[in-house]
Amino acid sequence: MKRGLFFILLLFVGISNAQMTDKEEHLKTMSADTTDGWKFHGLTALNMSQVGLNNWAAGGQSSVALNGIASLTLDWKRDSATWNTSLDLGYGVMRQGSQVLVTNGKFIKTDDKIDFFSKYGHKVSKHWYYAGLINFSTQSRPGYSYPNDSVIISKFLAPAYLLGAVGMDFKQNDVFTMFIAPLTMKMTFVNDDSLAYHGAYGVDEAEFNDVGVVVSPGKKFRAEYGGYVRMVFKKSFMENVTLTSKLSLFSNYANNPQNIDITWENLLELKVNKFISATITTHLIYDDDIRITDSKGNVGPRTQFKEVVGVGFSYKF
């Protein structure tokens, strides 16, 4: 595939430098019109770490970990219209301790992310656009509350979030954008009977009568209506250092609007050369409807935080 792209590039350069006929000039104009306004860029990275210990007096555990991320963006702009689409993927696994030496030992999931975003806008002034967006997020594989690996606490489409919003988009430059939407619908899906039965991720749990018989199964869908703000900051501070930060805020008009749902993601890229880089990703979530049990057995909303640091192979385009 790469060789094919390389030869196509050489062919394109040769044609560009050669004297073209009228027909070739017409074809070139058609091709330019077809791709006018499109920009595609992204980052893919695969990181691995391994620790092997044998009769190590200082103690510790052997481990092996593998983590991959992909951040892809497709932008289009023509006249007063803009369209921005992105897809962020992440997945990581690890083995630790004696499991490293066992062929059929289980890998523990450390990262799992599917996030699709698309926004369309129409310019109305120098920095403001009428805009609408959709955002879908979920994970690909089951998750467990380790060390208990017999009870699933998440899986594909359990949960899944779909958000649709209409509002105004502020774009000062390519570094910072802010989308403000007074009309927003946030949908939560829990496509699993057991999780819905217990009211996981904010859906209505099963209802029982006086003798403990289920009279209404747990709901697998919940809709919320409210206001939404999304801010994106992306800047290269040095030649090979880029920071992308995304902050989303949602307030449910009908239920505790003062308890704002927060999602804050950061990706720091440190490029060593064309194929070697380091990435640092963080993800902070606060959702008042998600109940989490802490180490003392208390159940309630908690601030969730995930951080992944990796050094390995990468390709940026």
Concise summary:
11% of the residues lie in helices and 56% in strands. It is mainly beta.
Summarize the structure in words.
The protein has 317 residues and is mainly beta. The protein has a single domain, classed as Porin, CATH 2.40.160. The protein has helices spanning 2-17, 22-35, 193-197, and strands at residues 38-51, 63-78, 81-96, 108-123, 128-138, 143-144, 152-154, 160-171, 176-189, 207-208, 214-216, 221-238, 241-252, 261-271, 276-286, 292-293, 299-300, 303-316.
Please describe the topology of this protein.
Elements: H1 2-17, H2 22-35, E1 38-51, E2 63-78, E3 81-96, E4 108-123, E5 128-138, E6 143-144, E7 152-154, E8 160-171, E9 176-189, H3 193-197, E10 207-208, E11 214-216, E12 221-238, E13 241-252, E14 261-271, E15 276-286, E16 292-293, E17 299-300, E18 303-316
Antiparallel strand pairs: 1-2, 1-18, 2-3, 3-4, 4-5, 5-8, 6-7, 8-9, 9-12, 10-11, 12-13, 13-14, 14-15, 15-18, 16-17
